[in-house]
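Slides due. Your pick:
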Amino acid sequence: MRRILLFTLLLALAVSIPPAGRAERYASDFTSGTDGWYARGTGTAAVFPVDGALQVVGRAADWNSPGRDFPLSPGQQVSITVEVRQDVAAAADFILSVAHSNGRETYENLGRATARRGVWTPITASYIPGDYKKFTLYVETMGAPRLDFQIRGFTVETASRAFDLSLPSLHALHEGYFDFGCAVTLPEARDTARMEFYASQFGIMTHGNELKPDSVLDVPASRELAKTDPSAVAVRLDAARPLMDFCRDNGIKVHGHVLVWHQQTPEAFFREGYSPTGAYVTREVMLGRLENYIRLVLEMTEREYPGLIVSWDVVNEAVSDSAAALRQSVWTRVVGEDFVLRAFEFARKYAREGLALYYNDYSTPYEPKLTGILKLLAELAESGNIDGYGFQCHYQIGTPSVQQVQNAMDKVIALGLRLRMSELDILIDANTPENLERQARRYGALLDLFRKYKDHIDAVHTWGVTDDLSWKASQFPLLFDADGNPKPAFFAVIDPLRLR
């Protein structure tokens, strides 16, 4: 039965949160004192209730702020709201933040707002707690360390969500064709109910951002190592672990995305001493860093999660959109136009046996980019260091045509390469019944094509699962709506398989 059960159990207003793990609502009007709130800081900052609000004074730093400890449940999403007011500056920037600790305190910014003088201004955020023992929610300023201000209406609401686990499984229905997978971000990976639903639908997952270089390269540690060896690199997997742990524990494959990209790579990676403003390093030093980075990532992921990652995007989006050549980037500037070939050379050198190596790119059906992609793939195929092509599928309702997609697939296959139909989503300009039906027909036509090519395709990946968490959320591009309900597109994909 197609349904999604979404409910929120709201308790009466209270001055404390019941034990963690229950659906609940916290709010306080500060009529009974500070209600557990305190001034974060080591100096003269202080808080006190005033007219249904909480005032903070005596601040010396932006983080000197009203804060309160909350027993949040890891993996259980909460919605947070607060109003802020200041009566001094023409405008001031505020941040709703969380401090969390398992012995060492770390921080996340959850929401932002600019409050004009004398105006109560709301800040809202949605937050999925990680696996920490202590959580402190607080409101801080940005660039106004001595500003007095007030907060009121601080609420924390925990919603219990039930996804429909009885739906037909995209993964199970495509057994015998290819793996059916999705991209998952860190907040999603922390949401236990959501991940149970994802596991019922998908057999392979890839990180949306958490294996990209800006998440994995440890710049401060690399800077220390570079004092004695300028090509040294340090890496970390902190942001990637929640999804890796989940996939390991639930028998789900992982596709690694991505080792080398011109975006989401710290500028310091290319600079002397890992300083973001230093001179660019020499080609030789950068090749050393490139090899060390790829080696360390492949060795660390395989050591800590043996066999879990079955394939990697080694290089992402290196071909120009407007010419049959590589795009100019910091990689071509510092290393040269052979950086892609060298990256695959290093990846093959350190990859375990059977680990598939892919080049990944978008707009494949369009010229002149298709010619540029094919030229690069031919060079990589000749080197023997590539296994397949990640054929990104970020598409509109009408373009490219199915024939254009098929033509490009045929040309890649002719080079002897496997395909991964990656990052699939289909944009619509309004969430109307007519558009949803058009989107469904489009998804159905593409999946019909992919199934015909099952002997050449390793996996099909949607770039996300629910519309609200898509990078193109305003264009409703995925198979499930914001509440996790299957859209017409979902049934267009699975119905031909259910009739077999």
The radius of gyration is 25 Å. The chain has a mean pLDDT of 92.
